[in-house]
Amino acid sequence: MATVAKRDYYEILGVDRNASDDEIKKAFRKLARQHHPDLQSDPQQKKKSEEKFKEANEAYEVLSNGDHRKKYDMFGHAGGPQGFSGPEGFGGGFGDVFGDIFEDFFGGGRGRTRAEEGSDLQYNLELSFEEAISGKEAKLKIPRWEVCGSCHGTGARSSNAVKTCSSCRGTGQIRLQQGFFTIKRACMQCQGAGQIISELCTTCRGQKRLYKERTLSVTIPAGIETGMRLRLAHEGEHGVNGGPPGDLFVAISVRPHPIFTRKGNDILMDLPVQFVTATLGGKVELPTLKGTTTVKIPEGTQPDRVLRLKGLGALAIKGHHTGDQLVRIKINIPTELTSRQRELLTAFAKESGVPSEGSGEGLFDKVKNMFE
Fold first, then answer.
1. Domain presence at residue 4
2. Does a cis peptide bond (omega within 30 degrees of 0) precede residue 81?
3. Tens of pLDDT along 218-248?
4. 4, 45, 122, 142: most buried by Cβ count inside 10 Å?
5. How far apart are CA 311 and CA 255, in angstroms?
């Protein structure tokens, strides 16, 4: 009787002969997911899958074991599968890879009783410019899921309403025998909880949590800026089954100010100054975030000159440094003149050597004369 030649183990797994252990394991996991019989409903297809699964299983059994693989590389199928079969012959973490595969198939037996951390929350808080500079105490109303106070997160009406599941005996898992290995999966009767609740909590109706609104007092530090976030640990949504609560993040945005802008810790503003004051010098009142102050305008101040007022800026979030207020001078040129004003300015222009209107020599003529 003719015998059918067995396929090369490397060819079955679709890997090179110098493939690493991780590559072999990855290839086997892929084939196991693809050809596992339990995933097939059609009888004919299930039979084909069983053959391919068995073939991949045998290939991995040999190639995942260092000694068996060396033997196979030297002698081929003549070197095996004697001594390779049975659970004791499995090498290369065979149990681990099947654990990974069946966790994908059946959830690994992880039930709903495992503690779940509560979700993080974000609250968007808008501040005025002044509030961001000086800081404030803010009252925030936070809607979130909280542990039910009636059942304390059990979901049951009373402690007597909680019974141990008879199917899994409280483990939340059942064991299924699949040939030579055992699969753990979540108990279908209790959904992995390990317990059966005969009477649900009348407050939360078995949800274990309630949606509530809580008011929190939050200290907004002086000098905070748009884009910054404050983290309030454990003020997010409550966890389930004893899991820790999440965190609350307060995201800051600052409304624009009609006069002031901010650059780092410095406060900037434009100050309109009459051209006479800029020319002769003088004192001008201007606003700051700490009230009105008087600033001296030096004689001959030019447009866009910046005056610095020490310590009137924003406080640094980290450290104790305070910025300055920067005042940019904007010369206010009058658009309407009285006859007397025009007469005086004309006299000033004549005294200064500025050509009068219609003299014929403008700026272009002066520049031209410089190069002649």
1. no
2. yes
3. 999 999 999 999 999 999 999 988 889 999 9
4. 142
5. 23
